Amino acid sequence: MSTKQISRLVVLVAVVISCVVLLVRLIQGTAGIVGSLFNLILGIVVVIALVVIVIWMFAYAKKMRKK
């Protein structure tokens, strides 16, 4: 093998490794975004549930007070 062929091989290997690393980083980033989105939705659901419970408690107390 000549020096030119070896340098082409080294550059090709570097490009392939860079593409693999980029792909892995993109997948990790996507997984992180999906996880964060799930946590956000779960937090919103919990807050809404707590608000509904508090409203129900006040409505129940108001109803019981009238009797």
Tell me about this structure.
This protein is mainly α. Helices cover 96% and strands 0% of the residues. The longest helix is centred in the middle third of the chain and has 64 residues, at 3-66. It is rod-shaped and about 95 Å long.
Global outline: rod-shaped
As a percent range, the share of strand residues is under 5%
Q: What is the CA-based Rg, rounded?
A: 29 Å
Element-level helix/strand string: H
Mean pLDDT: 94
- Low-confidence blocks of residues: none
Strand tally: 0
Q: How would a textbook summarize the main sheet?
A: none
Helix content: over 70%
Q: Tell me the span between the first and last alpha carbons.
A: 97 Å
Structural class: mainly alpha
Number of helices: 1
Brief overview:
By secondary structure, the chain is an all-alpha fold.
Task: Show the helix and strand layout.
Blueprint (H helix, E strand, L loop, with lengths): L2 H64 L1
Describe the structure using short key phrases.
mainly alpha, 67 residues, 1 helix, rod-shaped
